[in-house]
Amino acid sequence: MDLNTVLDVRDARRREPWRPGDAWLGGGTYLFSEPQPHLRRLVDLSRTGWEPVVLRQDGALEIAATCTIATLYRFAATLAAPAAPLFTECCRAFLASFKIWNMATVGGNLCNGLPAGPMISLTAALDGRCLLRPQTGAARAVPAADFVTGAGRTVLAEGELLRSVTLPARALRCRTAFRQASLYGLGRSGALVIGALDPADGSLAVTVTAATVRPVRLWFPLVPDAAGLRAALAAAVGDDEWFDDIHGLPEWRRHMAFRFAEEIRRELGRAPQAPRREETPR
Length: 282
Description:
Elements: E1 8-11, E2 22-25, E3 41-44, E4 53-55, E5 61-64, H1 69-76, H2 84-92, H3 98-101, H4 106-112, H5 118-125, E6 129-133, E7 140-143, H6 144-147, E8 148-150, E9 153-154, E10 161-167, H7 169-172, E11 175-181, E12 191-197, E13 204-209, E14 216-220, H8 226-236, H9 250-269
Parallel strand pairs: 1-3, 2-3
Antiparallel strand pairs: 4-5, 5-10, 6-7, 6-10, 8-9, 11-12, 12-13, 13-14
């Protein structure tokens, strides 16, 4: 879609004062999907040269805001970590064409703040930290689980930039479980729940997205029983925080979130199965 109110496109490498009507341009898959009558100038991030994905020496994974979904998906195939399959599952939750995969960015998905954003699900579940750069002053770090505050709302201040999301090495070593439900075979996520079991101390994190207006991440020092998990989830999500739109009623989303959370508790609460050894014929 043409944005006929936009009068200028500026390279983000050229520092200029932020002004009303400015917007960061990453992949543009949202910006160009519908009218943006309030915009007058786009600040293009495509030439910043940020490395899309960096596996640091301390084992943490730094994902640039400009990293595309296709790039992250290809990287996940090379990542030797127990949590690697979760990257693939969250990328596939987009249910988008290859054209969207090659343009849509991790940062754009987070900054849109939509409940069904699978990059929100991924980074919140793996205890990510978002690096934010304001127009003036020092950068700040915000937990990915706290970055989205409501449907379409984030902690970003006017002109503030999401630079990257860093996932700690410990989270990448977690055993994970993924559940997702949509009303249609190729529909938007109505409920998406992720579990991450830390092998170092046996703690469990259960993260609910899509069903709720904001990410809800529950942490347990040990795998809880069914009643404990249900009580914690009920206490964490208010009655008005179950999302309601054409892709699912709040009652259905709540039911699926509780069901998936219990399935994940059972799955990750079991000891991992050892690979079956084939006997050599004598």
